[in-house]
Amino acid sequence: MTTDLWGAFRRTSLGPRTLTAVLGAPLLLGGLWLGGAWWAALLGVIVLLGVVEFGRLHPDVPRAGQALTPAGALLVAILALRATGLLAVLFFFGALSVLSIALSYGLTAPIAPEARWRGWKAVLVGAVYLGLPAGLLLRWRLEAPFAALGWLFAIIWANDIAAYFVGLAAGKHKIVPQISPGKSWEGATAGLVAGAVVGSLGAPVWGLHAGGGAILGAMASVVSQSGDLLESAMKRRAGVKDSGAILPGHGGVLDRFDGVLVAVPLAYLSLAAAAMLRAALR
């Protein structure tokens, strides 16, 4: 049993994955700690690499459309960063609608090249998928201390680690094998529990009680796993194993940040809605 488990870890590139995490986590948290231009520059690099990889996953989009994706992502990021009042309500409702429809379609459409997004649909999805979380990460860092975002990353990482190890060691019941053969209900449950525990520990940084933090952590874990499956589905339809090759053991930027891209909007807007509700009830 031990030999089989160790073999499974080797097949999933545990060594390179660990090295990438050891080197990458301090870089990400360092940029978050410094904030300002450093944080903006780091997010800009991630988004630009993500745009390139998203284009690789959607090769049917014409060159003009490929060029519109980064411009659209920039516009969405600026709106996410600066929108206030009624404009913010309309913008976030529209952006979340696009993201929700993309998740629903991405996880239920046939795994075939014909199901890839094309033309303006690919541009719109790419712009929101990459621009919305980038803008919100910038906005959140301006509004809150390092710990608020740091704990969110801790939730997502705890979810990833628990799901990875429990899934390899005890994963028997596959979630959607046609999209991601390695994802199991056992691993997903372990990730949800880990996210809830870390969320409860970080609750004070968001002004929540432990129960509220656990709910936020559980929700972020579920949505993060959905984002992982969405990106896996895009890769299957494109016929590639990884979105890129820049991160050893992971593949590309989208392979590493797929969960973050959809968890950030949920977490930020849920906390903002909770704060507005508390203010209204006072």
Assembly type of the shown chains?
A: single chain
Strand content: under 5%
Give the helices and strands as they follow along the chain.
HHHHHHHHHH
Residues in helices, as a percent range: over 70%
Tally of individual helices: 10
Sheet with the most strands, sense and barrel status: none
Helix and strand composition category: mainly alpha
Overall 3D shape: globular
How many individual β-strands? 0
Number of domains: 1
Average pLDDT number: 91
Write out key terms for the chains shown.
mainly alpha
Describe the protein.
- This protein is mostly helical and 282 residues long.
- The termini are far apart.
- The mean pLDDT is 91.
- The chain has one domain (2-281).
- The protein has helices at residues 2-11, 14-34, 36-57, 63-82, 85-108, 119-143, 146-170, 185-202, 210-238, 253-281.
- Helix 3 runs antiparallel to helix 4.
- Helices cover 79% and strands 0% of the residues.
Question: Could you provide a short overview of the structure?
Answer:
This protein has helices at residues 2-11, 14-34, 36-57, 63-82, 85-108, 119-143, 146-170, 185-202, 210-238, 253-281. By secondary structure, the protein is mostly helical. The chain has one domain.
